Amino acid sequence: MTKTKYPLHPTRNNLHSNTKTVVIQLLNARLADGLDIALITKQAHWNMKGHNFIGVHKMMDDFRNEQNELNDKMAERIAAIGGTALGTTQEIAKNSSIAEYPTDIISVDDHLTALSERFAIYANALRKAIDEADEAGDADTSDLFTEVSRAMDQQLWFLEAHKPYPSKLHAK
């Protein structure tokens, strides 16, 4: 993790400054991922076509609304403990751990696959951040990461549940 170029802002929050510094870096890293996920969710929403279109299209809207709320909570946590939330497109591009989203896909199934791959990266990074925030001494941020993790695990499950699944009834 690299040092942030932004100094801590004065706050009466009594977390140790080292804890704040570590946790702000964790939060900004996951915020970059979360904002990236929100953008690719909308990219898929706008451009998918095919089987189950309307259901998946509407699901993407629900996902995006929830993602916006969760991203806002992470950004506000950063500010609450004296940090600077980094949410510009430049920061997202520089700091997101999410693989670049293909812009040449159209089919619902291709979007479901591409989204599932990226949501899994984010969900796994969130689980790691839960432990890292706890080890840094910030149970509140760990709890926030747990909330975001639960939501992303559910969204990932919904994406994966839309993919064709082999039937045992037709297996020989």
TrEMBL record:
Residue ranges of every copy of the Ferritin/DPS domain listed in the record: 24-162
MF-aspect GO terms: ferric iron binding; oxidoreductase activity, acting on metal ions
SUPFAM superfamilies in the record: Ferritin-like
CDD domains, A to Z: DPS
InterPro entries the record matches: DPS_DNA-bd, DPS_DNA-bd_CS, Ferritin-like, Ferritin-like_SF, Ferritin_DPS_dom
Assigned protein family: Belongs to the Dps family.
NCBIfam families membership: PRK09448.1 (NF006975)
Name of the featured protein: DNA starvation/stationary phase protection protein Dps
Organism: Commensalibacter melissae
